Amino acid sequence: MEQPNLNYILKLSGKSETFKHKIIDIIKYELPLEIDAYYMCLRLNKIKQVSECVHKIKHKISVYGMENSFYIAEEYENNLREGKTELQKEFEEILIVIRNFTNLQ
Fold first, then answer.
1. I want to staple 101 with a disulfide (CB 3.0 to 4.6 A). Which of 4, 57, 59, 78 is the partner?
2. How many Cβ atoms sit within 10 Å of the Cβ of residue 48?
3. What is the C-alpha separation between 83 and 104, in angstroms, rounded?
4. Are 31 and 60 in contact (CB under 8 A)?
């Protein structure tokens, strides 16, 4: 499984530790809320809202430099828009990885 990293955040923040920490803090705040919303919408079978949650989360995946995982999230989002849940398992495995990584930051 592809692993998250901070390369993009470091590149974006340059030498500013303050900016780097601000980005990380935003992700630490938003990601759990977005993941919880994803699972809530999924339980309620609100597929359109599930795809919107995936859309938000995929940007965090991108920020963590996970190109293949971003592609999976994008495909899953497109599938959901068509009412299909293919790639759900793969996407949810990515959620575990990024949640664990985020908790370590």
1. 4
2. 10
3. 35
4. yes
